[in-house]
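Reply to dn_fold:

You asked what the input looked like. This is it:
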Amino acid sequence: MTSFPINSLFSRLALVLMVSFLLLGLMLVQLSRQLDASFQEQVTQKLHLSLAEHIVHEGPLFIEGKPDPAAVERAFHNMMILGKGFEFYLLAPDGTLLNYSAPPEKIRRKRIPTAAIEQVLAGQSTLPLRGPDPRDPIREKVFSVAPVMIDGQMLGYLYIIINGEIYDSVAAQVADSAWLPFALLMLGSGALFLLASTLGLFAWLTRPLSRLSDAIGAMETQGFKTPSLALNTPGAAREVRQLEQAFNTLSHRLQLQYRKVKSVDEMRRELLAHVSHDLRTPLASLQGYLETWMLQQRKGQQPDPAYVEIAQQNAAKIHKMVDQLMELARLESDQVPMRIESVSIAELVQDVLQKYRPAAEAKKVLLDVSPKDPGLQVAADIEKLERVFTNLVDNALRHCHSGDSIRIQLLQDDQLVKVSVSDSGIGIPASDLPHIFDAHYKAANSIRGDAAHSGLGLAITKRLLALHKSSIEVSSKVQQGTEFRFTLPLA
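and this is what came back:
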């Protein structure tokens, strides 16, 4: 079962959501109470809006222009029997209190503004309309009002507070006992429903992030020994899919880089082993002939010039081998600049063959290229392409005997030029064909007499063609010859 620590994204979202719901619930409960109170006031005021007018019509409240205490007290008493929540005030035209039903010590202001009274009498009010409460300096309450008219003269107003202090006291008691359970029930049920649904949504949204975190943790603990981890959440949101795709791409690239670094590291160790082996023979020969030459000289004998010549040949072999090693290391660094230009491939091949013409004539090996069309142009780096043909011709010449031939054929095919370098030499065993492009690999029937040829030529050739976005293929039969094939884009 998955656990969610307090510092996890899911736990933090859940905590923030819970607090937000509680605050929202409290606000809704308070707003509901206010709306309910406003609704109750509106209903009550509308029901009792004509109450003051009814009392005024029951009997005169003034005698000779002054309030009649007996009539006022009688009217107030009769109406308070019907509704104990009413409060009655007899006002002068300017709002001064002339008589009232409240105890004198409850009155906080002797005169009230008449603006709300005038709005009700003019019919311009929207219920509920609140007026000033004489029992409080700032409080306002819903009311009923009617002018007191005698002989066409207005002597004052009958001002009735509909929900007075008694009503407020009873309403507060009822609210304390009824509103709290209702509020808790509404708040609890709403919060639980919203919390459950939203937490489920958050769990669904954060699940891909949890899977991503687990995948990164697995990559951290297991390294790159396991296959690349891939995330694919069905039905995930677009942003989540983009995040998973970015992780999958990054994981794949890290896997490739790890394999490449591992391969390069293994190849370097192998290279060091081969270099130490391949250089040992010419170095030993160089040292041996030099020591022999020096020994003859110390004995007063005439040194044999052949010893110096052989030592020089071995030094040249070592120099050539070191150059090849440096060239291969540079090609494998993937930082080799390419200068692609239009190259007359037939002329380039003839130049390469011309360099090997003396050695080929000495071995009685025929060199040929067809067609010799200077108009056949390819897009390539001329320096690197010359190195490719040099390596292939040199390799073919070393494996040919007297009477053999080396032929280079160029064939245009749509937007490509197919190149074939074939010879009729000793061939390569089938078991060796998959490995001949590996650095320092030598076929079972390779020419081993020449230590300078350490198997790097074909490896370099493959890397040079890879820089031209081309691959090289080989086919061979023992004692029948070998053919190398690759393609180049037409210029």
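Confidence is low (pLDDT under 50) at residues 448-453.
Hope that clears it up.
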